[in-house]
Every structure is written in structure tokens, then in C-alpha cells.
TrEMBL record:
<keyword id="KW-0732">Signal</keyword>
<dbReference type="Pfam" id="PF06725">
    <property type="entry name" value="3D"/>
</dbReference>
<protein>
    <recommendedName>
        <fullName>3D domain-containing protein</fullName>
    </recommendedName>
</protein>
<dbReference type="InterPro" id="IPR036908">
    <property type="entry name" value="RlpA-like_sf"/>
</dbReference>
<feature type="signal peptide">
    <location>
        <begin position="1"/>
        <end position="19"/>
    </location>
</feature>
<dbReference type="GO" id="GO:0009254">
    <property type="term" value="P:peptidoglycan turnover"/>
</dbReference>
<dbReference type="GO" id="GO:0019867">
    <property type="term" value="C:outer membrane"/>
</dbReference>
<dbReference type="GO" id="GO:0004553">
    <property type="term" value="F:hydrolase activity, hydrolyzing O-glycosyl compounds"/>
</dbReference>
<feature type="domain" description="3D">
    <location>
        <begin position="134"/>
        <end position="195"/>
    </location>
</feature>
<dbReference type="InterPro" id="IPR010611">
    <property type="entry name" value="3D_dom"/>
</dbReference>
<dbReference type="InterPro" id="IPR051933">
    <property type="entry name" value="Resuscitation_pf_RpfB"/>
</dbReference>
């Protein structure tokens, strides 16, 4: 009897150690998988919003996304963008046709992991951000650092970064997660509007001032509802 009790004790101890190692390495819990599997078997794929949220949660954890603090989710930003487009006449600004793709700070876009010292930091030195004014990558010969563009369906983008494949009329638009890229953007050819040409520099203070513009706070309130 004592031998059997001792065996059960060691089995439980081993199971606990294995579970602890698993959660530390993957940043996932068994409940995450239980919820995901239950949703699959219940056919919740028909309930897009519920399953999308679960898949986003799992993807963010499994990729160990550790971006700079994000206040708003992309879906809410896009709702505010739609209001902006209805309110402001952007045709008054010079336009350029571009091919715009979405990217993240993660390895799949930048080749950097969260442990990399440059993870989430743009060429300009500011942290990636998805907000009323988001950080984007561009060809600096076409759009200098600090240039403010309005991208229909995305919102205001501030040129803060570069990329090896971002040449000429190509843009990379920042999103917090891979799911956001797939669900809200992908790759699009469209006209963007040059609201303000940059001077070749961009600081965190500059970006914060743009996002604190009092005239735009009514749109920010839409993001937090």
C-alpha cells in the first residue's frame, strides 16, 4: 500500500513538473487548448467573432508577442478610421498609388524574436504602435521619416521604419498580431494621401503629440466603447 501511494505521489509530481515546463516554454495553459478544442467540436467556426477571439488569444500567446503597450485593438481602430473618412475630405491632399502590406514586430515579419534588443523598435528609434497615428514602413526616398499619410481602411500612418523589400511605391503597415494582418488587411493596392511631409526625423514625443491631438479625441473615444 505504501509503495503504491509513493508511486502515485511521484507520478503526480512528475505531471506537475511537466505541466510547469510546458506552460513556461509555450506560454499556453491547458485551458487555452480546452477552449479551442471545445469550440472546434461545437462548430463555433460559424460564430466568427467568438472563434476569432479565441484564435487570436492562442496566436498571441504561442508567438510570445511582447510589443510596446497597445491601448487599442485593430478592429476598434478601423471603426474610428471609417468615421474619419466620412468626416474629413482627404482629396485636398496629394495622393500616391501604393501597394500596402501588413506586418508585425514578430519573427515572421522582421526576423526578430522578443529576446532581440531591437524587437519592436523601428528604424527611427520609436516603438511600433497601432493607434490613431500608427507606425508604418516606407521607402525614405519617396516618403521621408516623419511623413504623415492617410491610408483608407487603415488610418493615419507615420513613416517610422524601412524594409529590404519596401522600395518605391510600397508600404508596410504595422499591426500588433499576425491575425490582425490577415483579418484586417493582407495586401492592397490603393491611393494614399500625403497629409504632411516629414523632415527625416521622428521621436516618441512627436508620435505621442500626434496621437494626443485634441481634434481627434472624439475618434479615440470610439475605440474604447
Amino acid at each position: 500500500m505504501k509503495k503504491r501511494t509513493k508511486s502515485i505521489f511521484f507520478i503526480l509530481l512528475f505531471s506537475f513538473a511537466l505541466y510547469s515546463t510546458f506552460t513556461n516554454v509555450t506560454n499556453l495553459s491547458l485551458s487555452d487548448f480546452d477552449d479551442w478544442m471545445a469550440a472546434k467540436f461545437r462548430g463555433e467556426s460559424l460564430d466568427g467573432e467568438t472563434l476569432l477571439q479565441k484564435n487570436q488569444d492562442l496566436s498571441e500567446k504561442s508567438l510570445k508577442i511582447k510589443n510596446a503597450p497597445q491601448t487599442y485593438v485593430s478592429s476598434a481602430v478601423i471603426e474610428a478610421v471609417e468615421l474619419l473618412e466620412d468626416t474629413i475630405d482627404f482629396s485636398q491632399y496629394p495622393s500616391h498609388e501604393v501597394v500596402a502590406t501588413g506586418y508585425t514586430a514578430g519573427y515572421e515579419s522582421t526576423g526578430k524574436t522578443p529576446e532581440h534588443p531591437g524587437y519592436g523598435i523601428t528604424y527611427s528609434g520609436v516603438n511600433v504602435k497601432r493607434d490613431l497615428y500608427s507606425t508604418i514602413a516606407a521607402d525614405l526616398e519617396m516618403f521621408p521619416l516623419g511623413t504623415v499619410l492617410f491610408i483608407p481602411g487603415y488610418g493615419y500612418g507615420v513613416v517610422a521604419d524601412i524594409g529590404g523589400a519596401i522600395k518605391g511605391n510600397k508600404l508596410d503597415l504595422y499591426f500588433p498580431t499576425v491575425n490582425d494582418v490577415y483579418n484586417y488587411w493582407g495586401k492592397q493596392t490603393l491611393d494614399v494621401y500625403v497629409v504632411e511631409e516629414g523632415n527625416g526625423q521622428l521621436s516618441e514625443e512627436d508620435l505621442n503629440q500626434l496621437n494626443e491631438d485634441e481634434s481627434l479625441q472624439v475618434f479615440r473615444s470610439q475605440m474604447t466603447q
